[in-house]
Amino acid sequence: MKTRRWSRFVWWAVGLGLVGLLLFVALRPTVIEVDQATVTRGPMSVTIDEEGETRIRHRFVVSAPVSGRLQRIELEPGDPVVAGRTVVARVQAEAPPLLDSRTRAEAEAGRSAAESALGRARAEEQRAIAALDLARRDLARERELDKGGLTTRQAVDARESAVRNAEEVARAATFSVATAGSELQRADARLRPDRLDSEGRVLSVVAPISGVVLRRLRESASAVPAGEPLLEIGDPLNLEIVSDLLSTDAVQVRPGAKVHLEQWGGDRPLSARVRRVEPSGFMKISALGVEEQRVNVLMDVDDPAKAPTVLGDGFRTEIRIVIWEADSVVQVPTSALFRKGEGWAVYVITGDVVRLTDVTIGHQNGQVAEVLSGVAPSDNVVAHPPDTLSDGARILVRPAR
Predict the structure, then answer these.
(1) How far apart are CA 304 and CA 223, in angstroms?
(2) Do 337 and 319 lie in a common domain?
(3) How many domains is the chain partitioned into structurally?
């Protein structure tokens, strides 16, 4: 009987021990593994990041000066040219068109009309000259009479006015003769014999500026009209960078803002400045098919003399336009921030527990955020806090990788 009672007691004890162990495991605080970040103080900047493209600031298109036959252009893109010296193209002027019978008849009739107009103008000129001579003789007689007191001063003034009017009429007649003569010359030019007098004349086109050939728009020999684009020339050292920003970003950019050029192919970033934000925008379809309002922002390299010569027209680069910066700012990684109502909060690590702390945030740049209040430099906070974390929870900091 005693053995049976003792066995029952042992079983009850073991059961109670198991229940207590289960309660202990279930009710003990859970330790959560977290990553740690540190609040620091240092320089901080906020940038607008976008892709940009280099382009030559001043481009010159060389065109054919006259209609004719273009000789083959030997220059290739990248070849240097010197302003006023390098011949970039040669155009053989075309022969004048032949006159058909109808056009010739019209030209001959026009010449006859011009010849008659010239004769009429010359007759008017002779009449005006004769009238001027008569007016001058009348004036001389009137002045002689005035000396003897046989006329009035009013009569003398009238004769002088008549002379001036006659001089103006004679001058106008002379101009009419010159005009009629020019019209006759033009009519003669239309009737010039159909000779290929300008055929074979080759006009040389020289470079308007010193630089390099950017594009060769015409290469082979061919007939070209006057004004046909042949070459595009520019100075590769006079580069600018253009980037189309979202209009909501462009309103934050001001002329003179710092720009960092990265991923252009070199081993170091280049510095530049914003020169102009264009006043009008345009619509652009993004890669996802979204309509976006874009604005071109133009930038210049700070020291063009130190810019790499390997950069050319139409090269890609990544730009970072600085819209705000400070030398000493308390900052926390954005990975430690999370929303708490309308504000922000972090979990501050104190020993092996965390404390929920409200913080006031200023500027952000995607990696760190400016802390205006709530935490201080050297405070440790939880990075990427999990949803299971709460105020006062016990934690275990993972070793830094």
Answers:
(1) 41
(2) no
(3) 4
- Do 214 and 341 lie in one domain? The reply is no
Residue 8, in any domain of the structure? no
For the entire predicted model, the pTM comes to: 0.61
Tokens of 234: 């520019």
**Tokens standing for residue 48:** 């607008």
362 and 389 inside one domain: yes
| List of residues 6+ apart from 379 with CB closer than 8 A | 38, 39, 348
Tell me the backbone φ, ψ of residue 261, rounded to 5 degrees. -100, 120
Q: Which strands form 87-93's sheet, in the order they lie side by side?
A: 202-206, 87-93, 68-70, 222-224
- Which residue, 133, 137, 142, 135, is CA-closest to 162? 135
71: containing domain? 59-96+198-234
The answer to whether the CB of 259 falls within 8 A of the CB of 274 is: yes
* Per-residue pLDDT of the chain in tens (401 residues, 90 and over written 9): 556 666 666 666 766 767 666 655 455 557 888 999 999 999 999 999 999 999 988 889 999 988 888 899 999 998 999 998 999 999 988 766 666 677 777 777 888 888 888 888 888 889 888 888 888 888 888 888 878 777 777 887 888 888 888 888 888 888 888 888 888 888 887 776 544 444 457 888 999 989 899 999 988 888 888 889 999 998 888 889 999 999 999 999 999 999 999 988 888 888 999 999 999 999 999 888 889 999 999 999 887 666 666 788 889 999 999 999 999 999 999 999 999 989 999 999 998 899 999 999 999 988 999 999 999 999 999 999 998 888 988 888 888 76
Closest among 371, 393, 308 to 34, alpha carbons compared: 393
Helix ranges (DSSP H) in 225-280: 247-250
Q: Is residue 5 part of a domain?
A: no
For 16-162, strand residue ranges (E) read 31-38, 40-56, 59-63, 68-70, 80-81, 87-93
Q: Is the separation of the CB atoms in 205 and 62 below 8 Å?
A: yes
Residues 268 and 287 both lie in one domain: yes
